[in-house]
Amino acid sequence: MGTAVSTYIGTAHVFGDNVDTDRIIPGKYTKTLDLANLATHVLEDVDPTFSSRVQPGDIVVAGNNFGAGSSREQAPLALQAAGVAVVVANFFARIFYRNAINIGLPVVEVGRHEIQTGHEVEVDLSDGWVKDRRTGQRYKATQMPEVMVDILNAGGLVNYLREHGNYG
Amino acid sequence: MRQTVVEKIISNHSERAVATGEIAIVTVDGAMATDATAPFAIQAFEKMGGERVWDPQRVSLVIDHASPAPNERVANLHSMMRAFSKRTGCRLYDVGEGICHQLMVEDGRVRPGDIFVGADSHTPTYGALNALAVGVGSTDLAAVMLTGKIWLKVPETIQIELVGEFSKGVTAKDLILFLVGQLGLSGATYKVVELTGPALHNLSLASRMTLANMTAEMGAKSGLVDPTDLDLPHPFEPTCPDEGARYSQRHSFDVSLLEPQVAVPHSPDKVKRVSEVAGQKVDQAFIGSCTNARLEDLQMAARVLQGKRIDPRVRLIVAPASKRVFESALKDGTAAILSESGATFITSGCGPCVGTHQGVPGDGEVIISSTNRNFRGRMGNRKASIYLASPAVVAASALQGEITDPVQLLSGEELEWELR
């Protein structure tokens, strides 16, 4: 199967350091299987207007340690359901990083960057770079382990295991 | 090859010996999900084509995050878990039995040397048992239920050696808060934190669980506590690091220098000495969570509150770590002391800590809590402020109506916690 898409262009929404999962989707909203409901509350404590402003294909860009804290997969699910196509950050908290790949939401680590909200950003997953199209600045992405690339290419861990039946 | 503990445990569960930085596909000894993560895990398991769980004896489902159900939506998710457990034979822990991490240890669902995968970020708690316990999300957990395996990158290890003796009134919680403050919220991201040294040898299993638990607040993949003198009901072969094993960082700290610590709003790594925040008024005090709600924690609070009444302006809420803990506290009189001091007992579970129910604060209120996270909005209201501390500090603060150092409040004898 495999997703053909490896290039994304979208508008950046920039957040700071240590945006924890309680801020991405508060615990009081997580006890649900309703993705649309998660999307309406995504990042509301940080920016109450975000869920109404975000457009399909937009890109969330963050600082250090995005997704710290809880293991709730509802955090990347809420971003994905709101239309976020890719998340770019200096680096991610471990469980958030795995969860995002497992649900087929691309996440890219680029180290320090100067991307601003409203800038158009281009992400090339196969070549591993992120470009700020406003400033022309290009950032090299951290190499992802091969197993994660395979899972992401399958569209997530569900599809990966449907295809392979097992790991390896 | 000279190996760290995590290299040894992963190698033992892999087809070959592996070293730091390598990717390994490992066999899993136990897996667990809660009502916060199991519903999505069950959904993903079914989408994967899963019918039978790889080994139902090794899979636990725990209803603890919103327990008993606060509304019909959650009640239906609980029903979904019960039905799945009935269909597949997984062990279900239902309303009131306890907090997932307490139950896994108490009920022997995890053993020394195991690799355990839990769909909860505080799974590293079982590092107290000399097991490698890793937190994941729902889809990874679904994959474990299907295959009995998971892929792991063999992490680097940060070793922290702890020497000296704890001063009176200072607990494992104060130590781990201090260390979270030192390393920071992402100080151990993707890494394992190995806590070792003579200061830990006298600690109870409960205190070791408190230490391992909050390595999650450093971003760690897992925490491991030195198994020396670990008292378990069954014999075990400890896994220890080889002489000359490679660490990414090594630190050493003398715990005798420590006084009670408090994490101030709105991050667990904003840590101060209790003397720096003493006098801060509080509206609610909470003793609970997978971090600090075991018998020794309740006993510690009872030492502070025995024969006294809490400040009438403060609500003191207690959620024991498990039904078994609650029953022990009933038998030894601890529960009566707390109740008579003005405390309210609620169902064993995670509710107030994760902001689902049974203790959501009001706008502008200040909470002192024995839990692990004080992110803005964590307890269900972004307009509240949360301070994290040991059960002794929480109890002393409930008594005085303001953040209080128990050491200042009590005589030396009353501060002899039984940490063994």
Descriptors:
heterodimer; A: 168 residues; alpha/beta; Aconitase, domain 4; 7-stranded mixed sheet; 7 strands; 18% strand; globular; B: 420 residues; Aconitase, domain 3; Aconitase, Domain 2; 3 domains; 5-stranded parallel sheet; 14 helices; 18 strands
Short description:
Chain A has 168 residues and is an alpha/beta fold.
Give the helix proportion of chain B (percent range).
Answer: 25-40%
Distance between the termini of chain A: 17 Å
Major β-sheet annotation of chain A: 7 strands, mixed
Integer count of domains of chain A: 1
Q: Give the end-to-end Cα distance of chain B, rounded to a whole number of Å.
A: 36 Å
Q: Per CATH, what is the topology of chain A?
A: Aconitase, domain 4
Large-scale geometry of chain B = globular
Helix/strand-derived category of chain B reads alpha/beta
Q: What's the count of strands of chain B?
A: 18
Oligomer: heterodimer
Q: Assign the CATH class of the largest domain in chain B.
A: Alpha Beta
Number of contiguous helices of chain B: 14
Give the topology string of chain A: H per helix, E per strand.
Answer: EHHHEHEHEEEEHH
User: Could you give a short account of the major beta sheet of chain B?
Assistant: 5 strands, parallel
Low-confidence stretches of chain B: none
